Amino acid sequence: MRAPRTAVAASADALAAIAPLFSRRAGALHAENVPLERLAAQFGTPLYVYSATAMENAYRRLDGAFAGAPHTLCYSVKSNGNLEILRRLARLGSGFDIVSGGELYRVRRAGAPSSRVVFSGVGKTREEIREALRERILLFNAESAGEVEILAEEAARLGRAAPVGLRVNLDVAAGGHPYISTGRRAHKFGIVAGEALRLFREHRRNRALALQGISTHIGSQILSLAPIRRAVRELAALARRAMAEGAGLRYFDVGGGLGIRYSSELPVNLQAYARAILHELRPVGLHLLLEPGRWISGPAGVLVTRVLYRKDGGGRRFVVVDAGMNDFLRPALYGAFHPVIAVRSRTRGRKQSVDVVGPVCETADCFAQGIPMDPVATGDLLVILGAGAYGAVAASNYNARPRPAEVLVRGSRAQLVRRRESREDLLRGE
Q: What does the angle CA 32 – CA 36 – CA 40 come to, to the nearest 5 degrees?
């Protein structure tokens, strides 16, 4: 897949908008108060670097926007599941949205209470369901009639009622790339409204089920309020109808999907977002659940990489770096748009149009095409912005490449929160 042309965030204002708490000082890029050059020298490259303060600030801003209503932010673990990040969010009072038993294990190892965990996803196994029931999680977001039946069977075996919400597919188009749009009828997610009402009626008196929630999730990287308003309005109407027929609802889950700025995007205004949701929710009177992921962790992380070679060919100039698509998959998978800038600003000559590519043996291993960049030399450090979400969490060992280290910065302190894999790690389990 051909990566898109990307724009370089050269100005201080653009950098602050895309990567808050990352700034230039004396020409060198810093994460909070720590020079990225120092981190690269200490921990090597490729290297993920996160700002703890940026994540905490984002969480508090979103939490504060809904301060006037009962709500729980359930951070989406799939966006970045590093244990130290989960620990810090748990201490702020965050809940967690999970999509696998492995993510439940991570959340519990991070010290988060099971009572703040919502289990989403279309393919929960019986083993995962049993594990989550034993942990007494807050809610299962069920996505099919078959899953509801299995939840009832497993809960009955344990002698308890499974707390269940029904995820409704409202056929609302939203999100960026088609792969991250999740709310259309053609997608695998959720239950159509009519079937959801039938399930509420059918299982209203089932002692193995506590049908307490109604939810939806229409996509990711949403940059418009219109689909959000429509989805919340339709979900609220469905909730009122279900309750009028005797459903004992407690939770109203509107999912996540708030978009962030990668280049020139204009994210949704946070206060307008809260008003749009609360306008529909207050008459319903349910506890609000939100599932932010990218919005909290995306702008808080960067990927630092070192230039290996420069080469010309086919009328193009290539800058080959040591990070590859196995380290950061989004550009190859989605054609995702991520600015690439130099860690240290230098002027060696006129800007040149370059393709920034990795070492993996795939043409799709390309981070940016045709971007203007000051001439760089072997050994220079570059940084890929907006890499805090769906970055390290989606890394692989393709081409037998060890996964990169991760560092969390707060103020002047840098903490290694995942060591770089070794060659021995590549052989574990074989």
A: 145
pLDDT digits (tens, 9 = 90+) for 323-365: 999 999 999 998 998 999 999 987 777 888 999 999 999 999 9
> Measuring CA to CA, how many Å separate 225 from each of 181, 221, 250, 275?
15, 12, 25, 11
Torsions phi, psi of 315, nearest 5?
75, 15
Q: Which domain holds residue 211?
A: 53-297
Q: Give CA torsion, residues 347, 351, 352, 353, to 10 deg.
A: 130
Percent above pLDDT 70 for the chain: 93
Residues 131 and 57 in one domain: yes
**Of the listed 361, 400, 429, 430, which one is catalytic?**
361
Asked whether residue 357 is domain-assigned, the answer is yes
- Identify whether residues 28 and 69 lie together within a single domain: no
pTM above 0.85, yes or no: yes
Name the pLDDT band for 180 (thresholds 50, 70, 90): very low
Amino acid at 129: I
On whether residue 3 sits in a domain, the answer given is no
Residues 39 and 96 both lie in one domain: no
| 221 and 348 co-located in one domain | no
Those residues whose C-beta lies under 8 Å from the C-beta of residue 254, and which sit 6 or more positions away, are: 215, 216, 217, 228, 231, 232, 235, 277, 288, 289, 290
Please say if 74 is a catalytic residue. no
CATH of the domain at 303: 2.40.37.10
Q: Is 21 in contact with 385 (CB distance < 8 Å)? A: no
Do 321 and 230 lie in one domain? The reply is: no
Rounding to the nearest 10 degrees, give the CA dihedral for residues 183, 186, 190, 196. 110
Q: What is Dmax (Cα atoms) for the chain? A: 75
CATH number, residue 186: 3.20.20.10
Residue 1 lies inside a defined structural domain of this protein: no
Of 246, 279, 297, which closes a domain?
Answer: 297
Q: Which of 300, 301, 302, 320 is nearest to 310 (CA)?
A: 320
